Amino acid sequence: MQRISRFECASSLLSLNPLLAKTRYALWVCLGVGVLAHFALTRATGPQTEQRAAKPLTTRFVKRQPRLTKPLEMKKKPRPRQRPIQRRMVSVEARGDRDHAAPLVRDTRWAQCLAKPSAALVRSTAVAATGMEPQDLTGIIDAAREPKHKMDMQLDLLDVNALDTGQYHAMIIQDPSDKKNVRGYFHLAVIFSETMVSREKERTHARKVVALATLVKAINKYTRIRAELSDSYTFDSRELFKTPWILACTYIQFRLTASEAHNLGRYMCHGGFVFSDDFIGTRDGPGDRYLRTMLRDALTTQGMQLGRDWQFEILPNDHPIYHCFFDFPQGPPMGNDFLNIINPSAAEGREPYPYLHGINIEKRLVAIHSVRAYMITWSDWGKSNAYSETYRTMDPTRQLQFGVNLVVFALTQEGSITHRVMDAMW
């Protein structure tokens, strides 16, 4: 028996090669059997055929036509109850013992608001003379044409003063058949330029305020317009577009700033009305020249050139501004410029204009230029504390009435700020 040394174990004498050979033999035999079995099964079942997958289910929505239904009808229809009507013929005989016949129809204020144009009966005729024939009445009715440059009275019972919320400085309603039947409110404002105020005397600016305050009293006296002097603004203020009438008056050399000229030009082109008046009343004086320059600069900012788009036109005596409230058949009334005729040395040989100049843009009067010094007549004439003794003896009634015409025309003119506001509201 072979002896085992101390460094060997029992498995040291074991031979591994025969064991590995047997294992490899068994592996190859199993692999061959598996391959043969696979080929045998493949031959037995045959090749597989491709199968198409079924399409997925789809849903189709079909819109059906509405069903025809029979409208709902009542089986029993109500019949109106018939009542017998008896007609009686009444004969009317005209009385011949009357001295004169009364008007057939009297015009009432509420009837004027029902339709336009209205029909006003301004003549009368006797019943016996007409013979009760319709054709004889055709000469009685005169069609009342709606006056030009006037606003319509939409509702006679409208409380226009209730619209005074501060959004607009003026609101007015005028009866088309009665030019003096006007009512509403108007907040006048003192409009000035920084350049103008810095060069004028304080007394001159105070007289402007007194002139407007006197004009406010005249408006409240002669019309149903509730007027008041509210505030003062510069030419470049946004509040300028709320008031339809402004007064520009001076006697010195001045020039509007760029912002003031641009704002005044927009104001004139968008419904505003400017009344420029020379303070002294001297033709070709500083006030006359620079007020014309003010209007020219303002319109130039809006692309309108003198001589091409507008010009200073003479207002004829039949212009509506002389007849919109009070009548001035001879044209503009006398102003403070009459002193230049009495004292030619004060006018430096310059004769006053016998007329007023106006500026029309798209058939709308946007400005009036005056050298009559109406502001002096409003502020000093007929007052005990007047600047001159001559002013105290002068009666400013007609001059103030012309100022009322200026305001009423500016408020009621077609295309004015107030007119556009009223059209937007109704």
Write the layout of secondary structure elements.
Layout: H1 17-45, E1 119-121, H2 127-130, E2 141-143, E3 170-175, E4 178-192, H3 194-199, H4 202-222, E5 224-234, E6 246-250, H5 258-269, E7 274-278, H6 286-300, E8 313-314, H7 338-342, H8 344-347, E9 357-361, E10 364-370, H9 374-379, H10 389-392, H11 397-412, H12 417-425
Parallel strand pairs: 4-5, 6-7, 7-10
Antiparallel strand pairs: 1-2, 3-4, 8-9, 9-10
- Major beta sheet, strand line-up: 6-7-10-9-8
Which CATH top level class of the largest domain fits? Alpha Beta
- In this structure, how is the largest beta sheet organized? 5 strands, mixed
Secondary-structure arrangement, i.e. CATH architecture of the largest domain: 3-Layer(aba) Sandwich
Count of all domains:
2
CATH superfamily of the largest domain: Domain of unknown function DUF4159
Distance N terminus to C terminus? 139 Å
CATH fold title of the largest domain: Rossmann fold
Order of helices and strands: HEHEEEHHEEHEHEHHEEHHHH
Kindly report the average pLDDT value.
77
Kindly state the number of beta strands.
10
Beta-strand residue percentage:
5-15%
Spans of at least 5 consecutive residues with low confidence: 94-155
- The gross shape turns out to be elongated
- Helicity range of the residues? 25-40%
